[in-house]
Amino acid sequence: MSTGAGAADGFTSAADEAARRATVGTGSGFCHALGMAILMVAEWVRADLDGASAASLASRSYLKDMADRARALAETGWYRDVSELFEAISFDQPRAALWAAVFMALVVRLNRNGPHQVQRVISVAAAVYCVVGAVALLPYTAAPGEFVFLLLLAFCGGIVRAATR
User: Fold this and answer.
1) Which residues span the domain enclosing 117?
2) Of the candidates 66, 46, 31, 44, which has an alpha carbon nearest to the alpha carbon of residue 146?
């Protein structure tokens, strides 16, 4: 129900609700969760390798799995193209850009009363960036293993869903 006063009185129009649903829908939510999951894995790997000695690196079996997956993917043309696109659109700061995309996705989902057109653009841009980043960082899924990554993806989906107000 709309009282004509808009979001200030707590009521919004049906058009506002439809725009909100389109902005924070399931499709973009999956993309945002995927970006969050790959970011969590990448940060875990980064923290695990930070300050590691050469001897301790040899004991991390997931590094071999990641290298094998990266080698296999590098032989495909589409993966090289996506990786180059990821580097280009992140201005050579892929970690910071992925953090920004995930953060902005959560801000859009938490900010119910923001301007819908701006939020839709931010949501779609973050979703696209999260998907491109997840594909470019696909070798990282070897670190926890596919099953654990799927569980992490489900967990991140829950976080994204909880952030959607």
Assistant:
1) 17-47+63-163
2) 66
Q: Residue 52: inside a domain, yes or no?
A: no
Give me the helix-helix angle, 14-23 and 116-136, nearest 10°. 10
Count of structural domains, the chain: 1
pLDDT tens per residue, range 15-43: 778 878 888 889 999 999 999 999 999 99
- CA R_g for the chain: 19
Q: Does 127 map to a domain?
A: yes
**Helix and strand tally (H, E) in the chain?**
8, 0
**Dist. CA 84–CA 130, nearest whole Å:** 15
Q: Sign of dihedral through CA atoms 104, 32, 29, 163?
A: negative
pLDDT of residue 10: 53
Model pLDDT for residues 67-120, shown as the tens digit of each residue: 999 999 999 989 999 999 999 999 889 899 999 999 999 999 998 888 888 999
User: Is position 74 within any domain?
Assistant: yes
Asked whether residue 4 is assigned to any structural domain, the reply reads no
